[in-house]
């Protein structure tokens, strides 16, 4: 990946959209990414579709309450 990309994420949906964009730019399938991290494709799908777990939803709520911003970027 030559061009670095970044995003400000405020919840699971925005984080999932960023993961999807980075994966697609890397020309990887969900299956390939899942294999690379030792997970199944369903997990990657859930992340990319913004399906927040109770932990993730509470974490983002905590960060919002503290007025904390998260930025993610490719290396």
Provide the fold topology:
Blueprint: E1 6-9, H1 12-25, H2 30-37, H3 41-48, H4 54-65, E2 70-73
Antiparallel strand pairs: 1-2
Helix pairs in contact: 2-3
How do the SSEs run, as a string of H and E?
EHHHHE
CATH superfamily: lambda repressor-like DNA-binding domains
Strand content: 5-15%
**Model regions low in confidence, pLDDT < 50 over at least 5 residues:** none
Number of DSSP helical runs: 4
Q: Tell me the distance between the termini.
A: 8 Å
Secondary structure tally: strands: 2
Name the average pLDDT. 95
Architecture (CATH level 2) name: Orthogonal Bundle
In the CATH hierarchy, the third-tier topology is known as 434 Repressor (Amino-terminal Domain)
Overall form: flat
The strand order across the widest sheet is 1-2
Task: Give a short overview.
The chain is mostly helical and 75 residues long. It has four helices and two strands.
Characterize the structure shown.
This protein is mainly alpha-helical. The protein has one domain (6-73): 434 Repressor (Amino-terminal Domain) (Orthogonal Bundle). The chain is built from four helices and two strands. A two-stranded antiparallel sheet has the order 1-2. Helix 2 (30-37) crosses helix 3. Residues 19-73 form the HTH cro/C1-type domain. It holds the Pfam family HTH_31. This is Helix-turn-helix transcriptional regulator. It comes from Kineosporia corallincola.
């Amino acid at each position: 990946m030559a061009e670095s990309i970044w995003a400000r994420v405020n919840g699971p949906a925005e984080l999932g959209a960023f993961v999807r964009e980075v994966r697609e730019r890397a020309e990887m399938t969900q299956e390939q990414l899942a294999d690379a991290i030792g997970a199944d494709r369903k997990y990657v799908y859930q992340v990319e579709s913004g399906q927040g777990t109770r932990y993730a939803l509470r974490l983002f709520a905590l960060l919002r309450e503290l007025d904390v911003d998260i930025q993610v970027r490719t290396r």
